[in-house]
Amino acid sequence: MDLFLWWLGQPWSWSDWASSFGLGAVTTMVVGMLLARRQGNIQEALADLELTEKVAYLTFSVSALRQASHPERTSRALYDCRAGLSLVPLARRPMQEEYLRTVARVLETIVDTLGSSLHSHARWTNNDWSSLGTVVQGLRETAVFNMRRSPIMAAHWSNAIDTRTRELLRIATAAVPFDVFRVHFTEGPDRIRAALDWERLSEMAEQDNAVRLSVVSTDVPPYALATLDGYYAPWYRDGSASDEVGYADRDAVPIRHTELATDLSMLQDDRQTRIGMLRDRYSAQLDGSGLSLIVATYVLGPDRCLVLDGNHRLTALAQLVAQGCPARLIEYRLTAPVNSAILPDLIHYQND
Q1: CA-to-CA separations, 223 to 263, 315, 326, 330, in angstroms, rounded
Q2: Quick check: 288 pLDDT over 90?
């Protein structure tokens, strides 16, 4: 180009060339900045759109998560929470705030559902709990990585996400947490009315391994009452087996549920009535697949348990088993010292 201009007699000076290159560089830089800004706006819009869809789904899922804790539904919600975290740094500030508040709400709902009821421990498999732990750990790692690019996410991490995910990892352990057991049977619809010393058990659960909880499932074939022979009720009869008496009565003898499978006459009238109503209701629900019952028990020794919650139901079930109905018994089994200071009824078993 320089030779051509020289040939035409109009050669450029060094200042002309410097001005030309300077103008070209500035033009290129300005155009690049405009394109980058436009690209950033497009990224923001796309991130906002994607997060808006996730907020809509997660908000819709909260009510379902609150009502029941299905493993598939819980994992899906957590995966959606995790997927959106990668988009948070790209979105506008208001959208970041809204999405992270929604994630915190979902995590809080799952913690409340799994932490206040034992139903999930009866229905979820070990693989379900393992998968939950894996999903939650992945969510934590994604949040930690992306909060380096988003101060807003860093604030929500310290205020909610970190605490909630740590709680979920604790709940996801194989053992049944004692505090979940306590909340379920003191604040939920299933209530243990026996005089358990909850405070003492809580202290023991925190200090040593003397208090353990497990979920035990037992299949009861038709007519196989012997399967239920080791289950005792916190009810007592006199020596002649003719009348029900209190646990502190001098002649009190603990009643096994199998003793009531064919004869309720030793029980109080109101207890007989309630058991009869439950038996009739269960009979009406039979569909050929048998019955399933959830109870809470206290381990008395090898193959022996005191039923803490579900005694009327278990007696009704025992009567149906005696008539040929198959059943499945799911226990939240509490293992602790057999000491009447923890539960007065244990005075009948602590010297066995």
Answers
A1: 15, 14, 8, 18
A2: no
CB 236 within 8 Å of CB 255: yes
Element (H, E) at 292: strand 291-301
Among 304, 297, 307, which residue's Cα sits nearest to residue 333?
297
Sign of CA dihedral 114, 119, 123, 125: positive
**Which tens digits make up the pLDDT trace of 213-253?**
888 888 999 899 999 999 999 999 988 878 888 888 888 89
Report the alpha-carbon distance of residue 70 to residue 91 in Å, rounded: 31
Contacts of residue 39, Cβ cutoff 8 Å, sequence gap at least 6? none
Calpha distance 33→260 (Å, rounded): 85
User: Global pTM?
Assistant: 0.68
Considering only the C-alpha atoms of the chain, give the largest distance between any 2 of them, rounded to a whole number of Å.
134
Tokens of 231: 């289950």
How far apart (Å, rounded) are the C-alpha atoms in residues 104 and 157?
9
Which is it for strands 253-256 and 231-237: parallel, antiparallel or unpaired?
antiparallel
**In the chain, which ranges are E strands?**
212-220, 231-237, 244-245, 253-256, 291-301, 304-309, 327-335
- Residue 66's closest CA among 138, 114, 21? 114
- In the predicted model, what is the mean pLDDT of residues 316-329? 91
Residue-wise pLDDT for 187-204, tens only, equals: 878 888 888 999 999 888
User: In DSSP terms, which residues pair with 214 in a beta bridge?
Assistant: 333
Q: Does residue 33 have a pLDDT over 90?
A: no
Q: Which residue has the higher pLDDT, 172 or 320?
A: 320
Nearest-10 crossing angle of helices 93-116, 178-187: 80
Give the up-direction half-sphere exposure of residue 174: CA atoms within 13 A in the CB hemisphere: 3
- Nearest CA to 153 out of 105, 100, 94 is that of 100
Residue whose C-alpha is closest to residue 325's, from 292, 303, 296, 294: 292
